[in-house]
């Protein structure tokens, strides 16, 4: 029987917590070899609780945490593509890489799109004056952004003439120490096409956000997308997020086992705020180590 090697990380949502709270968890995780990566999210208003709950801007916080850790790879799950222009985002990422060379993973998603009955995106994007795209436009913008970001990190200077983005003689210096892996999150058919063409890592939320059956079906659909363009599906890392249960870690271990069984080997444990003392050690001892045997 072939052994499937799992990679584990943690996600700390920066809502209702302080920088000191986040730094405590990240520095604890940085000392634990079982935890390989750490993640924030990238929203400007909270998605739960009162709208005036304190929330930290994701890229500023990421740079601060990167500067105070030494080993963990890190990123966002995910940065909304419509929040910042792609050339600016590539420059920001290169700057964070200069703070912590070789450790950044750029996590990117479509961002806010118009959906029937949705109130969260209009509230957040309207508050900050951001463009809300149709789903089709959002995916098209994501595909162009992936092209721009990669070129910013690898080419000296270039022009870009897309349907949604246009650049003239753009330069990005210094470039990242290594090209950061590109993680794309999402599960729609059109988004999976972008994943197959551009991503190094695919991320999809697992239970309770999406059922195991849904994740398995989307994983198979991604295999088909890869095959259709001549890409080896095995070249794409499959990542998922699991919200931990502090009360029942055994239930979380069971979900991790099921997700690993359908081929998702990059596991991100979403630690719900407020973060208990020693939560990174708890995650390593109660979930990661038992799941790695």
Automatic annotation (TrEMBL):
Pfam families listed in its UniProt record: Bac_luciferase
Matches recorded under InterPro entries: Luciferase-like_dom (IPR011251), Luciferase-like_sf (IPR036661), SsuD_RutA_monooxygenase (IPR050172)
Keywords: Flavoprotein, FMN, Monooxygenase, Oxidoreductase
Entry GO MF terms: alkanesulfonate monooxygenase activity
Domain Luciferase-like: 18-248
Biological process annotations from GO: alkanesulfonate catabolic process
SUPFAM superfamilies referenced in this protein's UniProt entry, alphabetically: Bacterial luciferase-like (SSF51679)
Identification of the protein by name: LLM class flavin-dependent oxidoreductase
Species assigned in the record: Nonomuraea rhodomycinica
